[in-house]
Structure formats: C-alpha cells, structure tokens
Specification:
With 375 residues, this protein is an alpha/beta fold. The protein is built from 11 helices and 14 strands.
C-alpha cells in the first residue's frame, strides 16, 4: 500500500470516528438547552438596557415554540433569530459545521464560508498594500506572524513598520494579539528604531481587535501622566440591568521607554473595532494625538465563551464599557477629530487619510519651531 493511500485511509477512519462521536454525543433535550441559553444571557449579558432589549418578552415569545419534539435545526434557527435581535457582533452560536455571528446581517456560515469570512466590513477606504507600495520607504518591516485557523483564516503579519519620510515613523496593526511577549518585543524594537522620529502615524484601520492589554504598552510609551481611559462594569445576576461596582481602567507612563511631546496621528475607520477601540481610548489621553479617518465600529463589551448542555458553543458580552467620562460608545463608536471619506481616493490610488496625517505632523513641527525661534 502506498504512503498516500495509507494517509487517505487514516484520514477516512478519523473522519468516520469524528462523525460517529458527533452523532452519538449527549445532546440534552431542546427545552433544557433553550432554557440554559436564556438563563445564561439573563444572568450575564451586559447590554440589554443599552440596546433596549426586553429579554423577558423574547423568552415568553420563543419558549412557546420549543418543545420536546423540536429538532436541532429548529432550535439552532431559533437561537440564531434571538441573537439577531441583540445585533451584537461579539455574540455567536456555534454547532458542528455551522456558526452564526450576530450583528453582521449574515446567515449562518459553514466551514467553507468560514474560509473566506472576515470580521471587517467591505468599506473599501483602506489599503495596506497601497501604503507599502506608494508611501513607505522600501525598507519597511513586517513582524509577528500568525497562523490562524479561526476567522480571518490564513497567515499574516500583525505589525507593519517603516519610515514615511526621513522624519515620520509609521506603524500599522491588523489586530491586537494576545501573544504578550511577542507584542512586547515588537514594541521595544519599534521604540528603539524610531524613538528619534519627529512624528508618528499609528494606523489601526481595519484592525479586528482581540486583546487590548499587551498593546497598552505602546500607548504608555507616549502618555505623560496617569489617567483613566475607560470605565467598565461587569454584569451580576440580580437583574438584567444590574452591574458590579465600576472598574476604572487606567493608563500610566512607561518608566523604561519614553517618547514625549511628539505629534501623533492616529488613523481609524469603521473596521477599527473592539480591543482596537479600547486602544484608541488609551491614545486619546496622549498629548498631541489627532484622530483622523472615520468613526470606529462601536464594539466595547468584553466577552465570555461557554457551552450548552448539547455541546453547542456560544459567546456573549459580559461587560458594559464606557469612555473616561462614563459615556457609552457601544453601537456608536469613536469619532475622529478630522473626518475624511477615503473611498473615492483609494479608487485612484491615493490615501488622503494618511496624507492628512503627514501634513498634520509637518505643520505641528513647523509651528513648534516657529514658536521656539529666538531671533
């Protein structure tokens, strides 16, 4: 038997075994699973009031559609419909070869759909390839490579860094990684190489989020004093609108690496989401930061993942997180200081948002030099 045939045989056996396990799994009954789903959200979901959701009414309506004869397909369809009412891109329900993401206006996805699924909307107002070919010097760097089997599936580098001209440093992040040591090393390398730049462009357009704490170190290189950047509350189970005491999330200066009093252009768009938005709130506390682009996505709630008795996986938002003034931004997003609709410019191979950022930094430095000039 050839080696290839052996591999195919082993693969077929594994596939058959996996299907057998799935078909013979402990499912629980439909009523039990529906009630478990409802009770979990009832006790933990943080955004009912903010989204004007009457959870009790939803339960009363859909519980009448559930009985012992409800099929898996029918139950999944009902849970999918419920999540669609939350319109929360942090929520999903997932079973074998089928997942539904709330808030995207999409039907459920199978494995083949997931291969091309991306959490970003097709805004067509940003192109990293255009920046690399037209605006960055040829010696730009790529770092922190990830191999993802979760959407967006594929191989990519998180960080792109380089010089836009002889004085302005550029950094783009595609997502906020939880690989804390790798993120730390990249930030240290960026600081050491570009600390003498006269200005910085921090670009988080089309950043799908992830984990905000590792990249917090980058913001703390620039910040000059300790301050609150967000106020967050974790749900408790007393009622759908009950929360634990607020947590004041703070940012403070980095004691080992410092870059101060430099102009910083922060580039954002509709696909700047979740942890990238928390990073934006951090950077808003940095002196001389100007937000340029378009409004961010408006997804701030921290999440929790769990499983129903039948093994289906779910995710829900368990925190309500507001800005430093305790103003809710969920479903709203963060507005830029300067709005630019970049779509028509990208079509003609121009990035007017980036060009505006460069102009802001050059103008800031020219003004500073004039004010400091002593004849």
């Amino acid at each position: 038997m050839s080696r290839i045939l052996k591999y195919l045989t082993v693969g077929l056996i594994i596939l058959i075994f996996g299907i057998w396990i799935y078909l013979n799994r402990e499912r629980g009954n439909p009523v039990e699973n529906f009630n478990y789903f409802h009770n979990t959200f009832n006790e933990k979901y943080a955004l009912f009031e903010l989204k004007s959701i009457d959870w009790d009414s939803i339960y009363n309506y859909y519980s009448e559609k559930i009985n012992e004869k409800t099929t898996d397909d029918e139950l999944f369809s009902i849970l999918q419909e419920i999540l669609s009412k939350l319109d929360d891109r942090h929520c999903y329900i997932y079973r074998f070869n089928q997942i539904y993401f709330s808030g995207f206006g999409l039907q459920d996805l199978n494995y083949l759909n997931l291969l091309s699924f991306d959490f970003r909307f097709k805004t067509e107002d940003f192109s990293l390839k255009l920046i690399e070919t037209k605006y960055l010097k040829k010696s730009f760097d790529k770092s922190l490579k990830v191999y993802s089997t979760l959407p967006p599936i594929g191989i990519r580098n998180i960080f792109t860094t380089g010089w836009l001209n002889d004085s302005i440093a550029y950094l783009h992040m595609t997502e906020m990684s939880n690989r804390a040591n790798d993120v730390h090393n990249t930030i240290v390398e960026f600081h050491d190489k570009y600390k003498d730049a006269k200005g910085f462009v921090v670009d988080i357009r089309d950043n799908i989020g992830g984990y905000s704490l590792p990249v917090k170190e980058l913001a703390e290189i620039f910040v000059e004093k300790e301050s609150i950047y967000a106020i967050s509350r974790l749900r408790n189970s007393d009622s759908t609108n009950a929360f634990k005491e607020p947590e004041y999330w703070k940012i403070k200066p980095n004691t080992e690496r410092r870059i101060s009093k430099k102009p910083i252009a922060m580039l954002i768009n509709k696909n700047t989401q979740s942890a990238a938005e928390l990073f934006t709130l951090m950077m808003k506390n940095v002196p001389n930061v100007k937000l340029i682009g378009s409004r961010t996505s408006g997804i701030f709630g921290d999440t929790q993942i769990g499983k129903l008795p039948n093994g289906w996986e779910y995710r829900l938002s368990v925190r309500k997180t507001n800005d430093a003034k305790d103003i809710p931004l969920e479903g709203i997003g963060i507005n830029p200081d300067k709005f630019i609709d970049n779509r028509k410019f990208i079509e003609i191979n121009e990035d007017r948002v980036l060009e505006s950022a460069i102009n802001y930094i050059l103008t800031f430095n020219e003004t500073t030099e004039k004010n400091n000039y002593v004849p």
